[in-house]
Amino acid sequence: MRLGTLLRSGPAAWLAPVMVPVLFWFGVQNTESVIQYWESATAQSLIVLGFVSAGCGACAAWESARIHRAEVDNWAPVRGRLHIAWLHLAPVAVLGLLGVLASLAAFSSTALGAPGFPSLGILVTAYAVVVSHIALGWLVGPLMPRVLGAAVMLVFGYLWGFWPAAIGELPWLRHLNGQGMSECCGLDQTASLRSMAATVLFSAGLVAAALIAVALNNRRRRDMGYAVSAAAVGTVGALVLAVPLEFRGVQARDPELRRCTGTRVQVCVWPEQYDREDDMVRWAQDTGKRLGEVGVTPAARVEFGEPHPSESVVRATTATSVLPSAPPDCAAMPGAEYPGDAAHSAIYAWLSLTAGEPEEELVQHWPSEAVALARQVRGLSADEQHAWYERNMRSVLDCSVKPDLRPASFRQEGGEKP
């Protein structure tokens, strides 16, 4: 059959002019959470994978039902069933590839200029999901009257593409449909190889089962057990990989790519930050000096999550590195009170102001009451500020200690000493 005839008679060529631009437009509207890092841009592009796989599965079911109604399989056996399936599904497979690449193109706008390239592993994983839906659609199409198979694949593909990620009780399901990496990645992370392998293995099991079912053509029922076995093996293998992951779809990035510079404070940068390393080191070193004047020593090593952090971000991140990233264990106990929450907010604001972050920038992302209190504490002497900090850090680290945030309590010329 001529290519032109295939395209005119099949749904792929008719759907492509609608689906591809819509996917690109949708991707452009949803790039807020992407950072200038190719791994992040590639992973975030999977947000539309459910739409692509559902559309391709429906197209495959449509084509299969049409071929079944025409009884093409009963014509002269010049071509085998697998050859016929490939001939009619090739345009659908191209449509799926265009859909994946259209989304990638939209999200890649945020990563242009960053070192590296789109993640081939993530793209292969996404396309494996699309191919599995195409194979499943080809099987489902003849089993239902007319276009019902296409409608079923459209609904099933949409639900399977988005529903598992919303199930908290079975978090590992997201690693079977390709959504396990959709929230990847920070600069210090890459997509989990285990998550990608689980998705590919599950998809490969479905594709293998479809190939066997098409080749055997239901000649003997017991032979169809091979198809079921192929799907079962792929599913079991995928579960072995996916279940231990739970929600985790990322893994640590190769530490060899990170380099650390500095003395008072070591600043560690990733390839996306190399071009700004000198400025980041200078700002962090100056922050360490400023904190030293009030008796505070920042963390020995700091990293930054933004590819090109501003001076304010570098100063604030370096200064607040002394604060714990999460409340103490005592705060997680049922019914526990954590009085250190207010102290944490005030200390964060005080550290940021001490480091040199402008107050007008700090109030844009931090409570104004905490910033106002921090400004008052900054009016104390260096020793008094240090005493205020030490006293209230005890409240941050211990649920049984109530904070004392009043600057007047720490003035040496009057008031009760801490």
From TrEMBL:
| Annotated keywords | Membrane, Transmembrane, Transmembrane helix
Q: Which residues cross the membrane?
A: 12-29, 41-62, 83-107, 119-140, 147-167, 196-217, 224-245
Q: Which InterPro entries match?
A: DUF7224
Q: Keyword Nucleotide-binding, does the record have it? A: no
Question: Domain named DUF7224: which ranges?
Answer: 267-399
How is this protein named in the record? DUF7224 domain-containing protein
Organism annotation: Streptomyces pristinaespiralis (strain ATCC 25486 / DSM 40338 / CBS 914.69 / JCM 4507 / KCC S-0507 / NBRC 13074 / NRRL 2958 / 5647)
